[in-house]
Design a protein that fits this description.
It is built from 11 helices and 8 strands. By secondary structure, it is of the alpha/beta class. Helix 1 crosses helix 11. Strands 3-4-2-5-1-6-7-8 form an 8-stranded mixed beta sheet, with helices on both faces. Bound molecules: adenosine-5'-diphosphate (ADP) and magnesium ion (MG). Magnesium ion binds near residues 24, 48 and 52. This is Chromosome partitioning protein. Belongs to the ParA family. May play a role in septum formation.
């Protein structure tokens, strides 16, 4: 039985931040694994051509593997590309392969270019019986606002923003919020920033505490109380094709992601 309540309907969250290296992918895979470990059914959609989320989940994503490219460009059903994660029950991944790098250009001339991922997700969810449907779909985005990220924003109902606890954390955030506002206005009125997670927190520095306080001031209802510490175990895990949840379950990184996932799940009712 699930340790945490299943949401009434699938929560579709885009993990976004226009900065690279702030912990988007790390947060996507670790929150996903943590939710899955609590008994929820979770799908990670890797829509970043770098395929880092696929790697971290131990998912084969060499060039010939059916991937999210086939879904957004060729219109293949998601079911054709979804793989079960080898190490974590209840966790699946739609991988990204290198050909996704070209999709940004190819999408431009396709019909319904902004909503192709949404169409695929909707069809997938409609084909699933209630007991087997995903509770969470987490979409890992590239750091740019190209058509792939727009597809993720159109498919999602929630935006999940990881913020690195460093000096320039809030810079670029207003641009992200403006872009989300544009998407709301023109493409997806449902979209809202529901969750903000402070990552790479260093309890020894005053700066980390200052940044966290400032973010909390701006987003009192969205910031999770749990902060993710800077941790070597977190950064090592992907090279073993694992999340920190299975790589080192008792580490501070694993425990903080598990706690953040519990908070996140509690906000679904
Ligand atoms: P993004 O997807 O936003 O580009 P990543 O999740 O790939 O960012 O993280 C960037 C780098 O920081 C990676 O090398 C990752 O392993 C490392 N990293 C992420 N979170 C942490 C953390 N809490 N502690 C230490 N290293 C981290
Ligand atoms: Mg990434």
């Amino acid at each position: 039985a699930a340790e945490v309540a299943r949401p009434a309907s699938t929560r579709i969250m885009t993990v976004a931040n226009q900065k690279g290296g702030v912990g988007k992918t790390t947060t996507t895979v670790n929150i996903a694994a943590a939710l899955a470990q609590k008994g929820l059914r979770v799908l990670v959609i890797d829509i970043d051509p770098q395929g880092n989320a696929s790697t971290a989940l131990g998912i084969d994503h060499h060039a010939e593997v059916p991937s999210i490219y086939d879904v957004v460009v060729d219109g293949d059903p998601l079911a054709k590309v979804i793989q079960a994660c080898p190490d974590v029950a209840n966790l699946w991944c739609a991988p990204a392969t290198i050909d996704l790098a070209g999709a940004e250009i190819e999408l431009v001339s396709l019909v319904a270019r902004e909503s192709r991922l949404k169409t695929a997700i909707t069809a997938q969810l409609q084909s699933m019986a209630d007991e087997e449907r995903f509770d969470y779909i987490l979409i890992d985005c590239p750091p740019s606002l190209g058509l792939l990220t727009v597809n993720a924003f159109v498919a999602a109902t929630e935006v999940f923003i990881p913020i690195q606890c460093e000096y320039y954390a809030l810079e670029g955030l207003s641009q992200l919020l403006n872009n989300i506002e544009l998407i709301r206005k023109h493409l997806n009125p449902e979209l809202a920033v529901s969750t903000i997670l402070m990552t790479m927190y260093d309890a020894r520095t005053r700066l980390s505490a200052q940044v966290a306080a400032e973010v909390r001031e701006h987003f009192p209802n969205q910031v999770l109380k749990t902060r993710i510490p800077r941790s070597v175990r977190i950064s090592e895990a992907p090279s073993f094709g694992q999340t920190v949840i299975t790589y080192d379950p008792s580490s501070s990184g694993a425990l903080s992601y598990l706690e953040a996932a519990t908070e996140l799940a509690a906000a679904s009712s």
